[in-house]
Amino acid sequence: MDISSDKLLIIDCLKKSMPKWVELSFIESYTEITSAELLQSSDIVIRDMDLFDAESRRFIHEHYTMIAGILPFVSEERERTRIIKKVAEEKNVNQRTIRNYLCLYLAYQDISVLAPKQKSDSRALTKDEKNIRWALNKFFYNKHKNSLTTAYTMMLKEKYCDGEGKLLPEHPSIHQFRYFERKHRKMQTYYISRDGLKNYQRNNRPLLGDGVQEFAPHVGIAMLDATVCDIYLVNESGNLIGRPILTICIDAYSGLCCGYSLSWEGGTYSLRGLMLNVIADKVKHCERFGIMINKSDWNCDRLPATLVTDMGSEYKSGNFEQLAELGVTIVNLPSYRPELKGQVEKAFFLCMASRKWCIYLF
Q: From CA 266, how far away is CA 103, in angstroms rounded?
């Protein structure tokens, strides 16, 4: 690794010991081998970084960062030891761990050797484990939502009873049954098998991706949706009228309310009122309710360039699609993806938190 007059800095590639200075005569009796022979004898595989997944690449670069500051001082034992101690304190890891990664990298000179070890379980299942897996698939992962105890009892009845219905002496315990289920449980399978795919997509699906940023990199992309207000209105006689429908259009990038519609009718009628409000002069609109504002307070009287909606029937109707003839791009989001239009969902939450405005407008 380094040469200084008649001394050499070497490292044991098999034992992974720290580099040390030795006399030149120390290696005269050794036989030179190729890199391929070294990898074969040490059972190490050098892989291209592009073959690793994102998590493994993050792991590799994170651990290489630990040892990167030590590499210039590998030949200076005192300074090397000081830096290793400092890095161990900063990263809150054991010094021996850092030494292991350092020796591993120095031996093979490739950061791919720092990849996490792949866990592999090639052991074949025993007969009892196969029976447990069968019972879980048949009695536990289904729409009947049986408990583990019920599934265990059904397994004993089907697999561990003789012709007279007596329990055989050799059978797995309930603790083994529960341990196998916890060890092999996949939450996605659990929710889908017991509650159905629709419920999983609506209530249990993980939220992945950039959400709003995926559709709103700039101003002019609006998200709209409708909801039934969480309020009941009555007339002057005290008779119950019903719950109004609120339809809102929100600029996803800035959060500006482009317009709204508050009416008793939903569907295309509420959309018609919404579009008229979006292009209306907001100063004159507020004057109708005795609210005086300046043009700069709510400067919005044009249609957005893009409208992002869900898969509601009114948003896929021919009437709504006529907006495309005006140059407006309409994006229909997939079902059960409310996080992709989080701005308008948050607007509903804020409106419902303060119900007085709804009573005032009506």
A: 69
Q: How far apart are CA 160 and CA 135, in angstroms?
A: 12
Mean model confidence pLDDT for the chain: 83
78 pLDDT above the threshold of 60: yes
Reported as a single tens digit per residue, the pLDDT across 141-178 is 999 999 999 999 999 999 999 888 899 999 999 999 99
Dist. CA 204–CA 141, nearest whole Å: 16
Whether 33 contacts 42, CB under 8 Å: no
In angstroms, rounded to a whole number, what is the distance separating the alpha carbons of residues 107 and 234? 81
251 is written with which tokens? 């600029």
Give, in degrees to the nearest 5, the angle at Cα 166 between 163 and 168: 95
d(CA 277, CA 274): 5
Contact 51, 34 (CB under 8 A): no
> Which two tokens mark 167?
């329990």
Q: Tell me which residue has tokens 């699609």.
A: 321
pTM score, two decimals?
0.45
Which tokens in the block code for residue 236? Answer: 């002057």
The one-letter code for the residue type at 137 is N
pLDDT at 224: 87
Tell me the two tokens of residue 53. 């997944």
Check residue 161 and give left, alpha or beta (phi > 0: left; psi -120 to 50: alpha). Answer: beta
Question: pLDDT tens digits, residue range 304-320?
Answer: 888 888 877 777 777 77
Token pair for 41: 């004898």
